Amino acid sequence: MNDNPQNPVIGWQDCQPEPLAWINLRELLLLVLYLPALLLPLVVAAFALFAWQLHLHRSTTLALLLLAPLAVSTIYTPAATSILSAWLQSQLPVPLTAVAGLPVVVLVGRGPDVAAASTAAAAPWLLQGQALAAYVSGDQRSTAELLQRLGVAPARIAGDSCARTTWENATLTAAWLHQHHPGSPVLLITDPWQLPRAVHAFQRQGLRVQPLAAEPSLSPGVRNRLALRETAATLIYRLQGRM
What's the number of CA atoms in the CB half-sphere (13 Å) around residue 100? Predict the structure, then answer.
């Protein structure tokens, strides 16, 4: 294993894409979703307005204002995490039974914890000759360098820091594959919460996808956030016709 790689990752593309206003709005809404101290007062206010508009009896209004935040707060429980995670897994397309040709391993940016797990899962495929190359999309160069430290030759690693969404991960990866490994299948490795949505996005680019979940060791709170985030994102993808 090469702990101090001297050779740079040859096929890496750094860029500073134009900011998207809706991404900032998305992150703000997700922050509200993640934090009960922000979401629950909004729920109370919404139900208070609802009760006022309908001229509900005071006792009914009080019951709503007590029960509504209590019901919503259950989304932060371990049981909710398990239920949402199971629902997300049910959205995963049926895996391909047989894929001709060696795949290209694809990792997508999901933060350092997921990067550690996904690179650890990817390295054996590359070191044992079971994959042609690795492409890291929408992540820091450090993730590609982590693959290199695990022993993967830098000439077999490429990627970009340009993608800002899962859909852009898929489109930029597809463009690179068509240029460098046309027709090769994709071994898509990411956390189990994002994986179903990511597979759909990559398939929409005409790619043959083998999914592989890499689950890092995460706190219950982080697991809950990922489950909530991906549930919201999956519902949006369905509304957009991307799944």
Answer: 2
